[in-house]
Amino acid sequence: MALRFVGIDPNTQGGGSPTVWVDDTRNELVIQGWKAGDALTAEVSGTTWVEGHDAGIPDHETLIRIPARMVPILRKACDDAERAGLL
After folding, report:
1. Angle CA(71)–CA(4)–CA(20) in degrees, nearest 5?
2. What is the pTM of this model?
3. Contacts from 34-40 at CB under 8 Å and sequence distance 24+?
4. Cβ proximity of 39 and 27 under 8 Å
5. Pick from 33, 26, 32: nearest CA to 81
6. pLDDT under 50 in the chain at which residues?
């Protein structure tokens, strides 16, 4: 795995902060964030996403939360992945 650090929550106070990496080997973005919690998971599980798509969160997936102030970092990660030819 070739993880490249892209950015961390600009308001971090240290330790365990939301962070974004690009994985050049697997062509993926890796995002660390806060656990979404049961209430949000239940809300998401109760919505219809796309016709023909099962609603709910499979056991092998999870939800995370990151602050909206990290949008520029996510944009940079997407741009980096695109420049690297990962898309």
Report:
1. 25
2. 0.76
3. 34/64, 34/65, 34/66, 35/62, 35/63, 35/64, 35/65, 36/62, 36/63, 36/64, 36/65, 40/65
4. no
5. 26
6. none
